[in-house]
Design a protein that fits this description.
31% strand, alpha+beta
Length: 157
């Protein structure tokens, strides 16, 4: 499922599922604006894409300016299968980033809306995410509310 938004007379943005050829549209450079990506060859990207694409519990959304064939944003949904809530499912939103030059155009909100819609269609009873304090107002605008505390233990450090 994809949604199209007209940004200006010469720019059309489509929010859709990640495709294997998005490697060449700046997907990794976009993620690098969020965190360390590392060295990911096109072969490694393609292998991981196939792995995730075959798993219905993963959905990576992208916002593409189709006139430039350039990705402007991305966000990921990972569905956790639980025993609680009658074997319910929880959607976890991760890796939300909009290109610095494209911020302020509601692309992040459109990506979140896309993922929430996917989570609803997949039968999730809730969607959760972790974010930095300064991002709380953005996520509240997207309809999420603050709850509890995030904890972490890095296993690669």
């Amino acid at each position: 499922m994809s949604s199209t938004y007209i940004m200006s007379s010469d720019s059309q943005v489509v929010v859709r599922k990640l495709e294997v050829d998005d490697y060449g549209k700046g997907f990794l450079a976009l993620l690098a604006q969020l965190t360390t990506v590392g060295d990911v060859s096109q072969e490694a990207f393609t292998g991981r894409w196939w792995e995730l694409n075959e798993n219905q519990d993963y959905y990576i959304a992208v916002a593409e300016d189709t006139s430039k064939r350039q990705l402007l944003g991305t966000a990921a949904l990972i569905i956790e299968r639980k025993f609680i809530h009658s074997c319910g499912k929880v959607g976890h939103i991760e890796d939300v980033v909009v290109d610095g030059a494209a911020r302020g155009q509601k692309l992040g909100q459109r990506l979140i809306d896309e993922l929430v819609g996917v989570a609803e269609r997949q039968g999730c009873y809730k969607v959760i995410l972790d974010c930095a304090e300064q991002n709380i107002p953005f996520y509240e605008k997207c309809g999420l509310s603050r709850k509890e505390v995030q904890m972490v233990k890095y296993l690669d450090r």
